[in-house]
Amino acid sequence: MKYSYYPGCSLHSSAKEFDISTKVVMKELEIELEELQDWSCCGGSIAGGVDHNIGMALAARNVVLAQNQNQDLLAACSGCYNKSAKAAQALENEQERAKITSILTDMGMSVSNQKIKVRNVVDVLVNDLDIAPKIKKPLTGLKVACYYGCLLTRPADITGWDSPVFPMSLDKLAQKCGAEVVDFRSKTKCCGGPILVPQEEVAFEMTKKLLDEAKSLGADCIILACPLCSNNLELRQPDIEKKYNVNYNLPILYITELIGLALGIKPRKLGLDKHLVSTKPVLAKVS
């Protein structure tokens, strides 16, 4: 299998370990990734808040580039995936397509009728592949909390490959890796990422609830697939510890890093040395 790979902005900056581990794991599983040529920011949630049509066109631009490469578009970041999938659906709507096409024409691009799908890495890993036969080092004894956040499996008409209410794809992948999955009831609750700047205290409280539950369940780490969620849960973890006088020291790993460890890939090759919250406790548990 071969995909046009769209890393997005975060995976080339604050979430480099997600990009690194995605590429290494997919290669190990014999999935070929061809980075999307001349890709650009999908606009995230910010561009759409300024102008819906421009925001949709920004994401659609990458879909059109994948159409030109005649390959399905694969995104690792749940936010990039969600926005790109919405743009692909909009291109199927006559009225939306006309608005988007007009803006893309001003960019010097033409929209083709080539049909492609927008996929997420988690979707491909759990639904297209069986990683079990590839597991070389089962993560026996490791307890993980699987966190999906707002965008990975919602809304259902955009995603459709897992339950938007009680998703299980990350849980299944972690279990195939040999890890014990805790009953993390807050798996789809918002981490507060979108309101971190304007309402920091509220965002901290939302993130704290997630960390509190994972810690109370005895989780050794939280597993996710969203750089924005990782920013809140990992990069802001020391700030929350200081503000509330608590101590978590809870590693936050991307699902591709977890799978990579189970595949027997060296931690440094997966980017596990790039985390703010040390991953050494996880490595000690599975060594």
From TrEMBL:
InterPro entries found in the cross-reference section: Cys_rich_dom, HdrB/HdrD_reductase
Cysteine-rich domain location: 4-82, 144-233
Annotated TM spans: none
Keyword terms: Oxidoreductase
Gene Ontology MF term list: oxidoreductase activity
Domain of life: Bacteria
Protein name, entry field: CoB--CoM heterodisulfide reductase iron-sulfur subunit B family protein
Taxonomic source organism: Gomphosphaeria aponina SAG 52.96 = DSM 107014
